[in-house]
Structures are given as structure tokens and as C-alpha cells.
Amino acid sequence: MSDYQAFQVELKGSIAHVQINRPEKVNAMNAAFWTEIIEIFQWIDETDAVRVVVLSGAGKHFSAGIDLMLLASVANEMGKDVGRNARLLRRKILQMQASFTAVDQCRKPVLAAIQGYCLGGAIDLIAACDMRYAAADAQFSIKEIDMGMAADVGTLQRLPRIIGDGMLRELAYTGRMVAADEARTIGLVNRVYSDHQALLDGVMAIADEIAGKSPIAIAGTKRMISYMRDHSVDDGLEYVATWNAAMLQSSDLRLAMAAHMTKQKPEFVD
Amino acid sequence: MSDYQAFQVELKGSIAHVQINRPEKVNAMNAAFWTEIIEIFQWIDETDAVRVVVLSGAGKHFSAGIDLMLLASVANEMGKDVGRNARLLRRKILQMQASFTAVDQCRKPVLAAIQGYCLGGAIDLIAACDMRYAAADAQFSIKEIDMGMAADVGTLQRLPRIIGDGMLRELAYTGRMVAADEARTIGLVNRVYSDHQALLDGVMAIADEIAGKSPIAIAGTKRMISYMRDHSVDDGLEYVATWNAAMLQSSDLRLAMAAHMTKQKPEFVD
Amino acid sequence: MSDYQAFQVELKGSIAHVQINRPEKVNAMNAAFWTEIIEIFQWIDETDAVRVVVLSGAGKHFSAGIDLMLLASVANEMGKDVGRNARLLRRKILQMQASFTAVDQCRKPVLAAIQGYCLGGAIDLIAACDMRYAAADAQFSIKEIDMGMAADVGTLQRLPRIIGDGMLRELAYTGRMVAADEARTIGLVNRVYSDHQALLDGVMAIADEIAGKSPIAIAGTKRMISYMRDHSVDDGLEYVATWNAAMLQSSDLRLAMAAHMTKQKPEFVD
Amino acid sequence: MSDYQAFQVELKGSIAHVQINRPEKVNAMNAAFWTEIIEIFQWIDETDAVRVVVLSGAGKHFSAGIDLMLLASVANEMGKDVGRNARLLRRKILQMQASFTAVDQCRKPVLAAIQGYCLGGAIDLIAACDMRYAAADAQFSIKEIDMGMAADVGTLQRLPRIIGDGMLRELAYTGRMVAADEARTIGLVNRVYSDHQALLDGVMAIADEIAGKSPIAIAGTKRMISYMRDHSVDDGLEYVATWNAAMLQSSDLRLAMAAHMTKQKPEFVD
Amino acid sequence: MSDYQAFQVELKGSIAHVQINRPEKVNAMNAAFWTEIIEIFQWIDETDAVRVVVLSGAGKHFSAGIDLMLLASVANEMGKDVGRNARLLRRKILQMQASFTAVDQCRKPVLAAIQGYCLGGAIDLIAACDMRYAAADAQFSIKEIDMGMAADVGTLQRLPRIIGDGMLRELAYTGRMVAADEARTIGLVNRVYSDHQALLDGVMAIADEIAGKSPIAIAGTKRMISYMRDHSVDDGLEYVATWNAAMLQSSDLRLAMAAHMTKQKPEFVD
Amino acid sequence: MSDYQAFQVELKGSIAHVQINRPEKVNAMNAAFWTEIIEIFQWIDETDAVRVVVLSGAGKHFSAGIDLMLLASVANEMGKDVGRNARLLRRKILQMQASFTAVDQCRKPVLAAIQGYCLGGAIDLIAACDMRYAAADAQFSIKEIDMGMAADVGTLQRLPRIIGDGMLRELAYTGRMVAADEARTIGLVNRVYSDHQALLDGVMAIADEIAGKSPIAIAGTKRMISYMRDHSVDDGLEYVATWNAAMLQSSDLRLAMAAHMTKQKPEFVD
User: Fold this and answer.
1) According to its UniProt record, in which pathway does this protein act (chains A, B, C, D, E, F) (predicted)?
2) Where are the beta strands (DSSP E) in chain F?
3) Which chains touch D (3 or more CB pairs under 8 A)?
4) pLDDT 10s digit of each residue in chain C, 270 long?
5) Best to test chain C binding among A104, A244, A255 (most C CBs inside 10 Å)
6) Chain B: residue whose CA lies nearest to D245
7) Does residue A1 carry a pLDDT above 60?
8) Which of A12, D1, D163, E83 would bridge C216 by S-S if both were Cys, CB 3.0 to 4.6 A apart?
């Protein structure tokens, strides 16, 4: 793990704790953020010793979204020709999307722990995570609408599969604040914890549970669920049959079965 | 705005209030209804001054669905050859579907305000709206099953993305009545208001909030969410990048940013 | 109806009651189970007199999932070459999937009534049913993760359309038990009944309600909702228009209309 | 048939002959062209007496593509805001696409007869027809590249299904002229006739042959082939089964069978 | 291999020779044909000793398509209610489609050898094969149009991927005869042989060549090409990566490599 | 342009000439090849001064495909657990696929110039290019089948859109050599040149022609054609309308129009 400007990353047992670490800026997403997150998740993806990821924000808030300084610097790169500006903007957006796609396509489950503000780009980010958990003081807003733009790094693409279409439209058109309890009701978060510490403890406990499972089984399960966002039931069935044709030959099944018989907890290789 | 037989249409500021206006017939959808709704939404689509739409029903009920007289007149057009009858019926159904597709594909958000009965074809209609809000006395039923037919103007196509698949099947197979509170629980409506007036006031307030946003940003947001009903996450990301390549060059971003700095409400051009 | 080893099948009026009948083995799914379920649903599909299906488990539990003896016998068939083993496993998995696809694609609605344990393969099974109802003592777990494998006979393919993506991932990664009430909250079951008898009575009543509708209309409604899991709204609209081009020429519409006029209950032919 | 500015339309038996009729402007596609073509094909679609369509160009050339005057007038409508200009342009392009989609989705087969120049927008047009036939002097060019733009009314969307991907790219990137013989070799046209008169005679003969078939069977065949451009084999099989469930009940089959037995030519109702 | 009424099946080394064997009826497809073909291809699929299939027709012609007696018997099953007739017809068509889907989805390559007439349903059949080879006297016609119906057992679904869209439409609308040479030019057959014996010898030689390859590699190659008819390039790439994750662990690679080094022909296990 | 081990890269005007440069190894694709090709095409993609790419092979042959030393080194990384080996292999294949996806998704047209052998992986590579041109001595073979494996870096995914399905299967199952003339007939290459020098001159001339067009228009055209491999006609039409909403505001259109009027060759900015 290298040193990062926008993040702090720790490996606790098999759990990588990835913390956005610019609390003095409400964890706003600056240029470093967007490139470092790719490096971090590439490392996670390639490192078999990491089995699960907790993503959180340092300080009182999860994140206020994109850093406005970054937007300003993009504006400065633009020239006179609308077509060439469009070419430049399209590339920039695709690059920023790739940062969150790295989170989405990470082979290990990613659990987001959210306290305080979770605004704009921060919603795009947590929508790319596997599960979301909140402290009671969490506040969510699809803030992009108030910046005069349609959200373009994942919120509008990934959230429809997570919360209801009808409520998503209300939140995306109005940008209104959603408190932790409503977030749980509409399915945006799985559980609400009383405060920040209880949130971190709770999420770490779930992560620990997952870290104890067969990493081969977890990887397969994640790939299948992600695959189903965009494929038919028939396609999904054939895909899992092909996947498991190899994976059921792993020794993890025998290990799990033996542990099941002896009522012991199995220890799986990374 | 021309005069309509089945509707009353008003422009209140930037809000088009479209009211089904046959209260003496429980707002049943007659021949005029199906053609006029296309004209109305075409006008809304082309008129930049309209930024948001409220769709409601005059009188005690939202609507009892398709007018049985209309069904009878279609039956009269049929001849002896089953194949040619099928050709005729297929065309008629496609035409009626086009009426609600005009609502669905309208570039501006459409908010449905529902009191009393909302039956059969009326469910198909509100499923084509962006958001749904109900008065406490609202009652919903997928009535088509009791007419001996599968619903064919949108309910079965659009509702799965809005409410759970399991509950949808129960409602579609049994045609049972759903009260306002259950409708909110299953995600069919976003909020329940105490009575008809509170409903209209509440929906108008939300519409007003949306009307104050950048119309460029709202149009993009709506297109993206609708697009995601039928496309993969990757397709959606590329599409919004291409869309925003043009739209982020709009002056609305600068306006929004300036307003944000000065804590003022921005005034966007239509 | 032949005799079955793993099932008991009864025809009550127009309702086929299909009961998994190995209570002494917690209704574990053995070799007979996987082949007989195909025969049973083929018979249901071809028999017009059956209009709706209730699927339940004999004894205190719905089912503990796949029989471990069956897994062991597959393991015994494997040889030395990884490629040929993969070919064998892929075929086996596809065959087992076909057993639940027979439930999924059955032309009549299938209602699952669940008490006690519903584990592993039993979740795959109920995910292939139209609706799910539970007794208060029901307990659900995506148990496959604890056997060192990704679920591969339907849970990961069909459940995302039924419960929220975020909660599904938590349940699939951790395998934790879900009680009846939480199952209702997340949309996994439609209703919770106080005990086993109340469950059976309640589900039979719903089945009876559905059996009274036009079988032509029910079949069309089911096909359309299933179709929408995997197709675009536009595709769905065109498909239902083509379907109804034939089906609206059925006499069931006239029958339903006449009954509606005379306030009587229509009697539809099978 | 009304009077048209850009077209001449004749009904010869069951064949509608639609002729682009601005020979003095090399049949360039002006404003009238784009709106009239929709009206004409709507009339064709609704008129059962029309069974097949021949589309040709008056004079020495088929068409030189879009009228540059029309492009200039669109340019004049543009204002200062890039976002609002994009909104306007997107709408205009969608409108023009709708003109050729009317040809593509016409329920009757459309045969294009091409002599002389077939440039730019004219390629987009013939790509929306069912079949293409050329005179020996025909010359094809995807001219848009030389106007500084990507073709946007159908060529790039429909041509990949008709000619090879590799050759399409060469033609679209270079805009080079393709003579009639090469057009036949790469599958762009089905046959080359020695001159303009032979072309018209030949195409009329094929149209006549098609006009003698069952219109129910022809409509089904066309819908299925068009459907397969965008759907899986499995989807296509299910769709045709549903379609034919109605259409095989038509009396045309008995008529065809009887004619087959008696070696006579069957006479089908429109 | 059991005895069949409509077929003769021989196993020559690793090649299954499946011959339609009703030469006195021009190999017309009767009731036995449609059920036996499923059994035959199920046997082929499950029998590892069969590595490749040659499909041919006994006598002077490949096949005249569906037996008209069979159509008549379906007609006799129909009742008075259009809806219930549609239900019956849809089922029958789906069943007949399943017969050719068994050919299409067979895990081993299927080579069609065609002489004389290949009409109507026979085109549907060869479109479900991997490759097609013809004798010089072969004649092809999409005959269904002359029976007053749209082809519904695979021609319109599978042929667009094999021959050009433009020419397919001409053949499907007119039903005109296509000779062997034109069939090769448009890609319907891969090669034309001088006469029937040369055809059988040539096709057997190709089959023999294929039978000598690794059956693991052949099965993967076939699945991937079939998969690509209906999936995106990205989906296909991921699928083959998952497939080969197991299959590259087969010993066939080492065997092939060793044979390559020693310039010998490798001998692969079934 | 850095120094590469496996390539030589030159910028000639606006044309990047990328040459595989291991002639002493028949341009076999070693480890350096697979990583360098990504860097090269990333540089091309980001460098506006490059407008078109020519891809060729140094020496007498284009390329013999993957270097067998590389395969051996992957085999060495494998351990005992089949599941973990599958995880490793899947990752490796996805990485190698990414190398050719970089070619496929490059924003500039890529023209392959092929002489001598083009075997195995080399077919996967040219299938990812826009167009293919051959010298008379070129020889093509889908060689993977003789290595006991299904091709897995693009041939089976991309070739079906380029050559006919029927012929592709023959070539993929048999691995037989295809000479230049047959390659042209089946659409694998666009043109055959008499010898290696004529090939390079001819391809450079086409590249030069393309380099003179508007780079904005070329990029749009390429994106649209690639998009159509995997999307419906309707999706493609909407996408190009959205794309051109920005790009038609570029000054290249005015420039092209002005040049057209004055019969001069326009000079477009990069």
C-alpha cells in the first residue's frame, strides 16, 4: 500500500479499509481522488489476501461529492470549437466513470459506511458499492441537479436497480435531502446504526463474516449478481453453469462439507 | 392550448396542469381521450415554456379506465377472417399504446395526482408517469383481469420496474383493490396526502420545485432514468457521457455555480 | 397423476396442490425430486383443467435444499481431466436448472406456501414461483455460500427482480437467516400468516380467486410479466399487442362483459 | 392520394409506385420531402389495397441526398447557448430519422429502384427499404463524410446488417464511389439491370409477384425479418409462434392449399 | 441407436450420419420426423463418442419440407374459440421449433449435405445446422409464402445471420427457386460439389477432419460462435474467458502441443 | 513515441504506422507485445495529431500468432487447486483480450496490411481492426483449434460480424488455410494487392484519404459503426442523434461546405 493524498488505506486481517481522507474539505473528490481510487481498487483486485473492502469517509461526513476546483480546471481546458470541446468533455467524463467502475467491478465485496453528508458524486460512488450502511445522522442528496447538470458518473445508471424507479425520479429531479431512516425504507441502505462508531463496528462485523467464507464462492456470487443487472435470466443461468463448471472442482467445497460435518468453522485459502 | 373534449389543460407558470375532465363518467377513457392526450403531450414536448406536468382527474375519482363504449365500437369493426381481425386488433392496440408512450417519452417530468378510483387503463396511464402521489381515499386495481383480458397498454410492461415483481403478480392475477397506504408501501406511489386538496397542493409544490431547476439538466436526468429501464449500466454510462458532452457546455452550469456562490436562487432560461 | 417418490400431488377443483413429501428428510431435494418436478409441471402445463398451482412442503419445514447425498454422487462421477469434468458438471447444472425453469415457465400461476426452513436450493425454487407466502415461523437462508459455492440453480438470477439488489448481496454473501417479517419487508414474500394452517388456508383462498378468472387472460398476464424481466418496455408493448391480437377474439371477453352487466360471477371454460 | 411537392405517387393494381419527383434538383431531399414521405407511408400502411411499394427517382438520378438549403435553414435557427442548440439539433435529427423509420416500419415490402446518383441521404433512404435493385449506371457514395459529419439518418445503423462490416467502414470513412457491379458483389443491391427502363420493368415484375401472395403472410414475413435485426434467435422463435397463433387461423391457408391442389393461382383478399 | 421411422442413423467412427429416410415421400417431415429428430440429437448430445454429425436426405432430394398430412391433422384439432385455438397453435409451433432447436444447440458440429429439392421446412432445418454443402442439382425455396403463411420454425430467425438481409427478403417474399451456384454466392452453402456422391464424399471428408480435433476445443468453439449470434462482443469475450478458465486446464492442450513439436497427429480422448 | 521491443511505431504526417517488429520470430506475440500494444493505442487515442493507423508486420509474414513461450510461462504459474487456477486463467485471458480491445476501441480507424502468414492470434488481432487488406501471398488460419483450444481473444467474437456465419464455422472447426482471394470473396479482406510493396502503398493511400477528412466526422462514424455490432437500430438512431447534437455545432461542417462551394480540399484542425 503506497501513500495516497486523498485516501488512507489499511489492511486489517483480510479486510481492506479504504477511507476517503480529506476531512477538512468534507472529503470532496479532487483530482488525486479520481486517479488514486483506480490504483487502490486495482491493488485490491489483484491481491488475493484482501477478501472484502470497507469504504468510509474520515471525519464528520462521508463526502460532499466532486471538488468544485476540479470542475473549474476542466472548464479552463476548453477551446472555441464546440465539437472539439465535446470530444474533450466526453473523454473526461468517461475517465471519471472509470474510477467508479473500478469499484463496481472489483472482485471482492465493497461495503460503504456512511455518516453525515453524502452528496452528489458521493451518491454515484456508493451506488457502485455492493451494500450501503448508514449512521443515524446520514443525509443523502442527488445534488447534481442544483449544479445545472444531469448526474453522469453512475447515480442514474446504478440506482434504479437499488431503489424504486418512482422515488428515484423524485430525488433526482428535486435534489431533496433524504435522512437515514427514509434511506433504509426505500432500500438505499441496508441498516441504520445509532452513531458513527456503531456504524463502523457493525460494518466491520459484517465484513468479517464475509471474509470467513470461501473467496472462490464469494467472487462467483458477486459476479453473478452484478451480471444479472444487465442480462436475461436464461443468460444468467447459462453463465453460472459455465462458471461453476470450473469452480465446483475447487477444494473449497470439500473443505466446507468437512467443516459442516464436524460443526467447525472452515479455514479457506485466499 | 386548444379546447379538448376529454381534458382541461392549464398553464400555471411553467407547470402544465392536465386534467381528465369527464367527472360524470368517472373520467372513463373514450375515443377523444386517446387522441387528445397525444396532441397535448406533443404540445408540451415542443413548448419550452412548459417545464413540468401535473396529471390529475376532475371530480371524486382519478379514472375508471377505458370506456366500455369504445371497446364495443372496436368489436363492431371486426369481420369474419380471424387473421384480418388480428391485423386490425394489433393496429388498434398499438395505437392506444402510443397514447401512453407519448406521456412516457415526454421530455418533461409528469406527476400524477390520484384520488378515488384508479382502475384498469388508469393504472396503465399512471405507470407511464414519472411519479405518482395519492390522496388517502385512493383505490387501485388492475381491473383488466376481470374483463377477461391481459392488460395491454402498459401496466404489465412498466409496473415491474416500479413495484416488486412478486406483489405485481398478485395484483395482476387477482385484480384486488389496493388502498393508498399499501400503494405507498409497495412503491406504487411516493406519498399519501390526507385529502384531495392536500394532494393537489402537495403535488403542485413538488412540481414548482422542479420547475425552478435547469430545464437542460431536468431533461437529461429524465432521459437517463428512462433509458436505464432497458439498457445495461455500461450502455447508460456511455450514453450520459455523450449527452453531457454537449449539455455541460450550456450556460446553465455557470449560472448554477454563480447562484451557489452567492446563495441565491438561479433563474434559468426555458 | 402418477405416484411420485418426492412429491404428493392433488387436484382440488382447478388447483393443483404440489407438495414436497419427504418430511423425514426436511424435504431435501434428492435425485427423484429433480426429475419428478419436471414431469409434474409438464403435466400441469398440458392439462387445461389445472388453472393454478400451490407449492408447499410436508411437515414442519418447507425444504432444507439440495440433498447432500446427491452432491456426493455427482462428485463420484468425476474423472481426472479437468476439462472433461467441467463438461460433465456444466451439463449436470444445466439439467438441474431445467427443473426449476419448468416451474418458472409453467403457463399457470404458481404460489409457494412456506413454513419453517427454506434453505439453499429451496430459495432457488421459490424464486421460480410467481408469488411467495410465509408462515410466521419461516426462516430463509441463501445457504450455498456456506457450502463453498455460488448458488447456481436460480437464486442469483431471479431474486434481483424480486428483492432489492443491496439486500440481496448481503444475504448472498453472508448466508444469514431472514425471518418471515423481514422477508415481507424486503419483498421476498407477499404476506405472513400466523401459523402453518392459516398459511395454507390463505394461499388456497388466493389460488381459488385466481382459478375463477379467465384462463386465457391469466396465461397472457403471466407470460407478459415474465417477459418483462428480460425485455425492454417497447418490446413488451409490441409483444402484448401481438398476443392480444388473437386472444381478444376469445369469447371470454364477451362472457366477462355479460357477467359484469348482470353483476354475476362469470364461468370460464378451461 | 393527395398532391405532393416532392413526390409523385401512383397506385398500379396493388403496387404503390412512389417516385421522388424533383429531377431538376437531382431529387434532393427538401423540407417537403421529409414531411410528405411520412404521410405517404402512413397512407400505404393503412390502405389494405396497397400490397407492395416501389420507390424510385424521376429523371437521370435516384437522388443526391439532403438539400443543402434545408441544412442552412436549420443552422439559422440556432442561438448562442450550446446546450439549447444541442436540444434543438437532437430534435431535428430525430424528426428526420422518423421519416425513414416510416419507410422501414411500413407493413408492406418496399423495393428501391436506383439509377444514376445515389448519394448521402439517399443511401440512408435505400437502407430503410426491403430490397434494392440498380441500373448499370448507378453510383453510390456515403457522402456525409465529405460534409464534415457522421451520417445520422440511418446508413450507419441499417447498412451493417446488409453489407459486410469491413467494406462498410471503408465506404463510410472514404466516401468513395461504388459502381453498380461492386454494389451487387457486396450485397448492397440484389440485381443490376442494363438500363433505367429494364430496371423499372424488372422491379415492377418482382413487385407484381409479391402482390400476388397472401398479404397476411407477407406482413408476417416482413415483421419477422425486421425483428431479427435486433433480437435473439430464441426471442424471434417465440415471437413468430405468438404471431402465427392468430394468423394461421386465417382463411388464406385454406385458399393457398386449395390452389396448390388444383394447380391454380390463389386470389387473396387484401 | 434405436430404429426410426423417418430416419436412418449410422455411427461411422466418430461421425453420426443422420439421414432423413422417406425417399418415396420426398423426405417430407411427418409426425414421426418431428419427435424422432429430438431423440436422435439428444442421443448425439449425450454420447461423447459422437464428435460430428452429417445430416442428409435419402434418394434424389434432401426434403420437400413439412408433410401436408401433418398440417391437416393440426387443423382437425381446432375448436370454435379463437383464443383457445391460438393457445393450441402456439404450443404446436413451439414444439416443432424445439425439434430444430435440438439440432441448433447440439454440442457437436452438424454438417448438412443437400441434393435436389430443399423446400420450406427443409430450409428451416438446414438453417439450424453449422454448415451447408450442396450438390450441383440442389434447389432451394422458402416455400412457406406459397402456403399462405410466414415461415415459423427457424428460417426467418436464423437465415439473416447466414445470408444477406436484402437477398433474404427477396427469397422470403417471392419463394423463388435458388440454384446451387447462387446459394454459394450468397453464403447459403459453403461449397458446391459436382454430384450427389461427390457431395457425400466431400462432406464426410470435412467431418472426418473435424472429428480428429480435440472435442473439448470443438465444443467450446461451437458454443462461442452460436453465442455470438445474440450477444455483444463484450459479453462474448467475458464468456469465452470464463469457459476457457476451465477448459485450458484440460490435457488436450499438452497433447496438441506435444503433437505439434513431434509433427504427429494427436489422438484426443472423446 | 517510446522505444518498443515488439513494435516499431512511426508517425507519417497524420498516419501512425504500427509495425509488429519481430520478423526473426515470424512476429509471434510475446509478453512485450501484449503490454506494448495497449500503450501504443492509448497514445494514439490521446494524440489528436494521429488521425488514422496502419498496422502491419515486418518481414515476410504478418504474424504467426501467440508466442508459445508465453503460453508455457502461464502454465508454470498454475498450482494444484482447480478453482484458483481457473481464477488465474480467467484473469490472464481477460488481460490479453484487453490488448485487442484497445485496438478495437481506438477512436481512429485502424487498417491492417497483411502479407504471408496470418495465423491464430493474428486473426484475433485483425478482427479488431476496421479494415483488412492483403498481399496475394497472404494465408489465413484460425490455428487455435490445432492447439486443442477455442480461440479466446476475439476471433470468435468479432469475425461473425465480418464474414458469413456458415463459412466462419468451417474455418474455425477445421483450421484450414485460406488464401488471399478466398479471403476477399468471403469479406475477410477488402482488397488483394499483387505483392507486399503494392499492399503497403495501397493501404497508405487509403489511410491518407481518410486522414484528410474531418477527424470529428471520422470519430463519430467509427463509433456509430462499432456501436451497431451490439445494439438495435432504434438504439443506434437515438445515439447518433445525441452524438451529433454536439458534433454538428463543430466548425468542420462550415469548413466542409465552404470547400465544397469553392471546389477546394478543406483543411481540418486535428
Assistant:
1) Lipid metabolism; fatty acid beta-oxidation
2) 7-12, 15-20, 52-57, 110-114, 117-119, 131-135, 139-141, 178-179, 191-193
3) B, C, E, F
4) 569 999 999 999 999 999 999 999 999 999 999 999 999 999 999 999 999 999 999 999 999 999 989 988 888 999 999 999 999 999 999 999 999 999 999 999 999 999 999 999 999 999 999 999 999 999 999 999 999 999 999 999 999 999 989 999 999 999 999 999 999 999 999 999 999 999 999 999 999 999 999 999 999 999 999 999 999 999 999 999 999 999 999 999 999 989 988 999 999 999
5) A244
6) B83
7) no
8) E83
Contact: A148, B216; criterion CB under 8 Å: yes
Q: Assess contact for E86 and E32: CB atoms under 8 A.
A: no
> Is residue C133 within 8 Å of C114, Cβ to Cβ?
yes
Alpha-carbon gap, residue D165 to D153, rounded angstroms: 18
ipTM above 0.95, yes or no: yes
| Alpha carbon distance C104, C37 (integer Å) | 12
Question: At C264, is the secondary structure helix, strand, or coil?
Answer: coil
Q: Which CATH architecture has domain B215-261?
A: Orthogonal Bundle (1.10)
User: What's the pTM?
Assistant: 0.96
Looking at the partner chain, which of E190, E220, E252 has a beta carbon nearest the beta carbon of F167? E190
Contact flag D167-F190 (C-beta cutoff 8 Å): yes
Tell me what the pLDDT averaged over chain A comes to: 96
Given this chain, do its domains F7-211 and F215-262 carry the same CATH topology? no
**Beta carbon pairs, D and F, within 8 Å:** 149
3-state SS, residue C35: helix
Reply yes or no on whether D124 is catalytic.
yes
CATH top-level class for F215-262?
Answer: mainly alpha
Distance CA E15, CA E211 (A): 7
| Annotated domain spans of chain D | 7-211, 215-262
Kindly give the parts of chain E with pLDDT less than 50. none
Give per-residue pLDDT as tens, F138-180: 999 999 999 999 999 999 999 999 998 999 999 999 999 999 9
On chain A, the residues whose CB falls within 8 A of the CB of C230 are 232-234
Binary contact (B149, C188; C-beta < 8 A): no
On whether the CB atoms of residues C189 and C180 are closer than 8 A, the answer is yes
Residue D1 pLDDT: 57
Q: Which residues of E touch C216 (CB under 8 A)?
A: 83-84, 87
**Cα distances (angstroms) measured from residue B96 to each of B37, B226, D223:** 10, 20, 20
Report the alpha-carbon distance of residue A153 to residue A120 in Å, rounded.
10
Q: Is B235 a catalytic residue?
A: no
- CA F44 to chain centroid: 13
DSSP string, F192-257: EESSHHHHHHHHHHHHHHHHTS-HHHHHHHHHHHHHHTSS-HHHHHHHHHHHHHHHTTSTHHHHHH
Backbone angles phi, psi at D252, to 5 degrees: -60, -30
> Which tens digit of pLDDT belongs to each residue from B190-231?
999 999 999 999 999 999 999 999 999 999 999 999 999 999
Of F233, F241, F257, the CB nearest to D152: F241
Task: Read off the pLDDT of residues F5-61 as tens digits, 9 standing for 90 and up.
Answer: 999 999 999 999 999 999 999 999 999 999 999 999 999 999 999 999 999 999 999
CA F72: distance to chain centroid?
26
- Describe the crossing of helices F31-46 and F82-104 by its angle, rounded to 10 degrees: 40
Among chain A residues, CA nearest to F91: A46
Separation CA D222–CA D213 (nearest Å): 13
Across residues B41-63, what is the average pLDDT? 97
Query: From its phi and psi, is residue F59 left (phi > 0), alpha (psi between -120 and 50) or beta?
Result: left
Measured in angstroms, the CA of C191 and the nearest CA of chain B are apart by: 9
Contact (CB, 8 A) for B93 and C244: yes
CB contact under 8 A, B83 and D250: yes
